[in-house]
Amino acid sequence: MLLNRAELSAAEAVERLVAVQGQEIDAPYIGLWTRLASFTQDDLASLLYDRRVVRGSLLRGTQHLTLADDYVWIRPLMQVILSRTRQAAFGRLMREVDLDELATLARGHLAGRTLTRPQLRDLLLERWPEVDPTALGFSAQALVPIVHTPPNGIWGKGGPTPFTLAEEWLGRPLDPAPPVERLVARYLAAFGPASVMDVQMWSGLTRLREVMEAMPGLRRYHDISGRLLFDLADAPSPPRTSRPPSASCRGSTTSSSPSPTAPA
Question: Rounded CA gap, 211 and 188, in Å?
Fold first, then answer.
């Protein structure tokens, strides 16, 4: 959806892209606006309020927006990344903290309600007053599946980040053991042909070479540098003459903009 704006809904675009980078609140709106023939702020905002799209820590452990149907299996795959990142950042500061107890206590504090990170941090400090407060707050986010509910994620909205248990917001449990091949296939459907390193850099996961080499039905290519690329067997390829549109062409495309000053 970078060569030409697509005639898709916002939900269809989010699904096609698997997850949309949302570390900055406004970024997903611009990312979708540049890809879609017709898009407004309300198109994405309504998906967030309707719980069809959620915002949380996903690919590479950073904030992304994804369909609720995809969050329930992508988030468990990201746990290894979130745990690794948490350990690298705060492991030394939390040597005396039982992480299973912290996760259980955080779930208990969040059950049936939404708290900001500072509010949850202060409640956890009652149990571990000697531990670094920042380490406690961020560790809870890494250990427990949490989504950031509206108005967080709405264009132009700031303020403290709300924490809500993902299972409660979505009204269903997460997939306990999703296959990593599912994520690889979704990535290739959106961005293939791609190398193993491409998939690993996008997702944050490692050791995917054996996974991809064992997946049945993948086509193999080599790029001009000799890198091995994988793609789905039935994935279409763009014409060899395809070129990205120039800035002037993009600027002349008629489309609804999320902001009068949003760049093309």
Answer: 13
Give percent helix, percent strand, percent coil of the chain, each to the nearest 5. 45, 10, 40
User: pLDDT class for 111, splitting at 50, 70, 90?
Assistant: very high
pLDDT the model gives residue 159: 82
What is the Cβ-side half-sphere exposure of residue 137, based on CA atoms within 13 angstroms?
Answer: 15
Buried b (16+ CB within 10 A) or exposed e, 172-194: eebeeeeebeebbbbbbebebbb
Q: Where are the domains of the chain?
A: 10-170, 180-232
Could you give the dihedral angle defined by the CA atoms of residues 133, 139, 144 and 146, in that order, rounded to the nearest 10 degrees? 70
Residues 6 or more apart whose Cβ sits within 8 Å of residue 183? 18, 74, 77, 203, 205
pTM: 0.88
Nearest to 229 by CA among 196, 182, 200: 196
Q: What is the pLDDT of residues 49-89, one digit of tens each?
A: 999 999 999 999 999 999 999 999 999 999 999 999 999 99
